[in-house]
Write a structure and sequence with these properties.
alpha/beta; eight-stranded mixed sheet; 14 helices
Length: 301
């Protein structure tokens, strides 16, 4: 449900953006659609700033200092390496709130803003932003990770709720580990699919044909995880203790691509504890699979 403008404005009456890349545009447009007042944007690229402003109902293009002077909440949505220089180049207004949207950058890079009386924090949407128009439309429902002290943490949490998202509170010092963990559910899925596609292409098939086959399976696995959890929702030969099939997989992949075979073995080893947790295999079956994986690695390549 869209939060009325007056209620959202009571949290942060004027919101500004420094940086107008894909994440900044998507977040600004989504906030505007939910009734927030996205007041101003600054960017090194005039075209990018104009594009962000054009997607909002009443947003002006300003300098970074003007954004900081006029807005109550300032999102720094520059590339990670530009966050600290952007923050250090501004004189901050006491009582304003300044957050960056990087998953891996520590909040301490906003130290100048904090020293000058602003509240600082991190605000990281766990979403993909390859296409900002699509991201703005689909942002609601994702998790947004907040790292901030009070009262800013509570106010940002209200903003997250207004976006239709779920809050994840992160303690200080955990950002890099947190961001690395996100990679397993985002870009590494692409890597896993690319491995499978590579094998399909070896017999003359295409990436499109492989993805047409893989994506329904992936959706089914995700549905199983949602219903049964990680361990019980895991398919495949390890999950059912099928040592013979695991061994044949490794042999076939070793003949095709030794590096792929090594990667497969590593993934299988990580699969064994999940299969045990699900109660699908016992200790003897787990030991048998591990032995096959170790032996296969000793075979000539």
């Amino acid at each position: 449900m869209t939060m009325p403008h007056t209620e959202l404005a009571s949290v942060f009456p004027k919101i500004g953006f420094i940086g107008a890349g894909r994440l900044g545009c998507a977040l600004a447009w989504c906030l505007d659609q939910k009734g927030a007042h996205v007041h101003a944007v600054a960017s090194r690229s005039a075209d990018s700033a104009t594009a962000l402003a054009a997607g909002c109902s009443a947003c002006a293009v300003m300098s970074p200092q003007q954004v900081a002077d006029e807005c109550d909440l300032i999102f720094i949505t520059t590339p990670d390496a530009a966050i600290a220089p952007a923050a250090e180049g501004i004189c901050w207004r006491p009582g304003s709130s300044v957050v960056h949207c990087s998953g891996a950058t520590e909040v301490q890079v906003l130290g100048k803003a904090l020293a000058e009386g602003a509240e600082v924090g991190g605000f990281h949407p766990m979403h993909t932003f390859a296409d900002p128009v699509t991201a703005a439309r689909t942002l609601s429902g994702c998790v947004i990770t907040i790292e901030a002290g009070e009262p800013l943490s509570q106010r940002l949490s209200r903003l997250v709720t207004a976006l239709g998202c779920t809050v994840n509170h992160l303690p200080a010092g955990m950002r890099v580990r947190y961001h690395a963990s996100c990679g397993f559910a985002s870009q590494f899925v692409n890597v896993l699919l690319a491995e499978g596609v590579g094998a399909w292409q070896s017999w003359g098939s295409t990436e499109q044909a492989a993805l047409a086959a893989f994506l329904p399976m992936l959706r089914g696995t995700i549905a199983s995880i949602e219903t049964s959890g990680l361990a019980k929702g895991m398919p495949g030969p390890v999950s059912r203790g099928d040592t013979h099939t695991v061994e044949r997989h490794v042999q076939a992949l070793r003949d095709f691509d030794p590096d792929m075979a090594s990667f497969y073995r590593a993934l299988c080893r990580r699969s064994v504890p999940l299969a045990q947790k699900a109660g699908r295999i016992d200790d003897a079956q787990a030991a048998s699979i591990k032995a096959v994986l170790d032996t296969a690695g000793d075979a000539p390549e």
